[in-house]
Amino acid sequence: MSTLAQRDHAVLWHPYTQMQTAPLAVPIISGEGAWLIAEDGTRYLDGISSWWVNLHGHAHPAIAERVSAQLRTLEHVLFAGFTHPTAVELAEQLLELLPRNQSRVFYSDNGSTAVEVALKMVLQYFHNQGQPQRRRFLCFRDSYHGDTFGAMSVSSRGAFTQPFWPLLFEVEFIDVPVPGREAEVLAQLDAALQHPEVAGFIFEPLLLGTAGMVAYSAEVLDAMVRRCHQRGVLCIADEVMTGFGRTGPLFASSQLQEQPDIMCFSKGLTGGTLAMGLTTCAAPLYEAFLSDDKMKALFHGHSYTANPVACAAALASLELTRAEACTQQRQRIAAAHAAFKQELEDQPGIRAVRHVGTVLAVEYDPGEGTSYFSRLRDAFYQLAFDNHVILRPLGNVVYLLPPYCTTDAELALLYQVLRQMRELVLNFTPAPTLPEYLHD
Ligand SMILES: *Cc1c(COP(=O)(O)O)cnc(C)c1O
């Protein structure tokens, strides 16, 4: 008789996991609020909303109710030639909340596909207009937009995508305009915009997640989008992580004066219940696909496009997100983060503390440079886990991205772990590293 974890190990292949050395996966059998409950009864506080997807807590009754009713009414219908009430209602509600220029909703399956659709919209927009030579994208050097090939191409050329580098299409990278570097980056942008082939600029608005929760201002992003628009370059706001209240307001782009031409959503879209992505765009983009010529249509689609059950989950989650109670939860978390930032920053062992809305990131100072694969990262992970807290450090950056239902007492537990990590850093002596050829 083997345990669930052993059976898993015999047949499964986990994402972002070195299967040879990773410990057995932790079997989770239920969830409640910000907690995940393991097979052996241990409760773990989900400090990162299960990879940034959960908004209102696990197994939320209101979402479960709506999903279950939808399942008994209509589970799925193909979305070419047919439609259904939840897809229409969700699109109507979202367009009401998004920046006013957004006028169309295109459904897909996840964040990566939402990005693929956005890239294809830009490329075919210019193709349909007889400017196929405009096909170059600008993106941030440290960006992350997903794991499919187009999304990888517009993402940082990091270690994770190295085996695929030769097959990724070329893009123009510019630095992130972090505080103090704005003018320099605007100059980089101006230089990049000289190339007549530039078609689009894709960015994570205000907060780059995978880069280590790197923040930059709405003012500089406004300036960048304005410069792109002056050159006819289309701007894609990838709100897959920042959408639905993460940065405080419903969308990070709500803080901009300039409006993006295209927006991408997933993660929090269904409150963390079901996989779904969507791409929205402004009217001129959509209109460039209208023609008597069938070949000018957008030939992109997935079998489960606009799945009614996922749309129902999204509607239920959106209702919770729009409620005054949720705004208050987000404000409470943001205020607690701000106070904790004050406590921690400038202390020994801390390089920087960043705080945007419900997201808090602590960059520890391990002395010399460390990478994602460092022992420190694993030590951080283990320390959190031993405290029954789930965090996934990005190298020496540890961030909190809790569900909005996380209580003050639960936040206090998360902060306590971050304090212990500082102690750990201060006492941390890295093992002497072997030269590369001596490994294994
Ligand atoms: C997670 C993420 C994606 C990819 O979404 P998946 O659903 O994992 O494919 C894209 N963009 C951003 C900003 C993300 O954080």
From TrEMBL:
Lineage top rank: taxon: Bacteria
Subcellular location as annotated: Cytoplasm
EC number(s) stated in the UniProt entry for this protein: 2.6.1.62
GO-annotated cellular components: cytoplasm
Keyword Cytoplasm: yes
Entry's Gene Ontology BP terms: biotin biosynthetic process
Predominant place of localization: cytoplasm
Keyword terms, alphabetized: Aminotransferase, Biotin biosynthesis, Cytoplasm, Pyridoxal phosphate, S-adenosyl-L-methionine, Transferase
The reaction(s) this protein catalyses: (8S)-8-amino-7-oxononanoate + S-adenosyl-L-methionine = S-adenosyl-4-methylsulfanyl-2-oxobutanoate + (7R,8S)-7,8-diammoniononanoate
Group of enzyme by EC: transferase
Pathway(s) the chain acts in: Cofactor biosynthesis; biotin biosynthesis; 7,8-diaminononanoate from 8-amino-7-oxononanoate (SAM route): step 1/1
Cofactor(s), by name: pyridoxal 5'-phosphate
Site (Participates in the substrate recognition with KAPA and in a stacking interaction with the adenine ring of SAM): 16
Coiled coil stretches, renumbered: none
Record: residues binding substrate: 51, 144, 267, 301, 392
Gene3D superfamilies with a match to the protein in the record: Aspartate Aminotransferase, domain 1, Type I PLP-dependent aspartate aminotransferase-like (Major domain)
Single GO term (MF): adenosylmethionine-8-amino-7-oxononanoate transaminase activity
Family of this protein: Belongs to the class-III pyridoxal-phosphate-dependent aminotransferase family. BioA subfamily.
Record's function text: Catalyzes the transfer of the alpha-amino group from S-adenosyl-L-methionine (SAM) to 7-keto-8-aminopelargonic acid (KAPA) to form 7,8-diaminopelargonic acid (DAPA). It is the only aminotransferase known to utilize SAM as an amino donor.
Subunit structure, interactors included: Homodimer.
PANTHER family (alphabetical): ADENOSYLMETHIONINE-8-AMINO-7-OXONONANOATE AMINOTRANSFERASE (PTHR42684:SF3)
Protein name per Swiss-Prot or TrEMBL: Adenosylmethionine-8-amino-7-oxononanoate aminotransferase
Organism for this UniProt entry: Hymenobacter aerilatus
